[in-house]
Amino acid sequence: MSDRRNELSLHLLTVKPDARPSSVPFDRSPEPDSSSREGLENRIRELEARNRELLTRLGEREVIARELLRQNAELIRREDKHTREYARACRQLGEWQQKYRDWSQWTKHARIGVLVFDFKLRLRQFNPQITLEIPLAAEDIGRPLGELADKFALDGLCADIAWAAENRVPLEREISSRSGRWYSLVIYPSGPGEERLRGLQVTLTEITEFRQATAELRKLSYAIEQNHSIIAITDPAGRIEYVNQKFTEHTGYLPEEVRGLDIDQLHPPEIDGVSFQEIWEQVKSGNRWAGEIEMGTRDGEWYWEGATMLPIKNPQGDIIHVLKMSQNITEHKTAEELLRKSEMLSAIGQLAAGVAHEIRNPLTALKGFTKLLERSMTNKAYTMIMMGELERIETIINEFLVLAKPQVWSFQKKQVDEILQDVLMLLEPEAHMGNVQFVTRFAPGLHPVSCVENQLKQVFLNILKNSLEAVPVGGMIHVETGSEPDGDIWVRIADNGCGIPEEKLARLGEPFYSTKEKGTGLGLMVSFKIIENHRGTYSVKSEPGNGTVVEIRLPAERENRV
């Protein structure tokens, strides 16, 4: 273009536009006259004007040419862009066609019923699965929802579709059919939230079996959660996955506190001489284990469980969980212990009735002859020892007779503090010899109790004598009385003696078991029996080095009984 312009410029004028006329070369003809010169100058000026006009037009054409080139480049760029977009659109169209084919294939074979409506709620598509519940045919395509309502045998389906279309929001719920089947209904409008509805899809997934299974699981869940047994479920490694409410009630641990803990952290290291790890390995190998376990609570207390642990297997026989079910058998264990002691006491009572009378007669003769020997012997130390031992035997016989059955006792109303004062008066000389001080605090205005006075004296005498033997020289024994709001009278005897170890404390009251070197154990056994006969209760608390506290509770104003 530029070359063409230069060629045209040279063709029009070979001199510069501003060249003076005198500088323009002419033929060497004779110099013209003045009129000819004037005409020539006019001609030059015309040519110069013409030349400038041509240059102006040439510049405009250059601008137009540049604009054409720019527009041509833009057209080329747009064509490239449109080509790329067309190629991308073709690819997307192919992808959507493939997706549509896949979706059509999926809806054809899926167990999910599908309905597709357009923006006017006219049926556009359905799959074979939906026809199991809604009897649609090919001629129904294009029919509006209202004309199909009689075929929709599902409770409220048409209303749900109309509501979702009107509000342009998805809807999900469970719906039942007239045949009794249950479905999960999902209605999804195309372009939810937009002003204009583009279409609407409906899916129905049958959940009848799922609901039945869920109901069964819910029943099992309620049965486990509300079961009176203590239940814990772990994974095969022993990590706790579930505990029921009874577990929390007995142990004090919340489910979130124990979930994920190893089950051995809540059990003692050994059970009946077998390590818990061995028991767990036995269960993991597929065997059932049952036994009694002493368990600890969150508050540090202890209780007994009758427990069973067994593996839970899947259909392939793999252990997927371990179930532990247990019952709190603390009361049962206590009852067994009481029964054992009761049977022992009953046996001793039966034995006492015969043995006491069989021994008492020869014992009387032995005591009489021993006194006769004492008169004739110069060294009376031997006879004194014999008399002391005979008197000790007689004391044991008398304690045996307390256990003998049947016995008839006359109950009378007496003041407990008066009985205690009589016993303390008897023991005052012995306490004075050991420099032991009795500190009393009797509550005023106590109601009387219905009792056998001599038997209560024997109880208080036995307990106070044990305290006197336990306290060191210069010790103190506190004797207090009081009453409860329910009317019970309590007597508390506390000393600062040596105390009793925990393992021995549990055996107090057993016959022939004593913490003293020469004790028989019958004193406390008889005392506890007397308290039970008075429908009272007793408790013994002691720690080595911190003394012992014995508390007795008796009902006030009990009716006379035999």
Explain this structure:
This protein is of the alpha+beta class and 562 residues long. It folds into five domains: 2-78; 110-212, PAS domain (Beta-Lactamase, 2-Layer Sandwich), CATH 3.30.450.20; 227-328, PAS domain (Beta-Lactamase, 2-Layer Sandwich), CATH 3.30.450.20; 334-403, Signal transduction histidine kinase, dimerisation/phosphotransfer (DHp) domain (Helix Hairpins); 412-554, Histidine kinase-like ATPase, C-terminal domain (Heat Shock Protein 90, 2-Layer Sandwich). The protein has helices at residues 2-12, 34-109, 145-148, 157-167, 208-225, 245-251, 255-258, 276-284, 330-376, 381-403, 416-433, 453-470, 502-505, 522-533; strands at residues 112-118, 123-126, 171-176, 182-189, 199-206, 230-234, 240-243, 270-271, 274-275, 289-296, 302-313, 319-328, 412-414, 437-441, 449-451, 476-483, 489-495, 537-542, 548-554. The strands form five sheets. The chain has a five-stranded antiparallel sheet, with helices on both faces. A hairpin with a 2-residue loop joins strand 8 and strand 9.
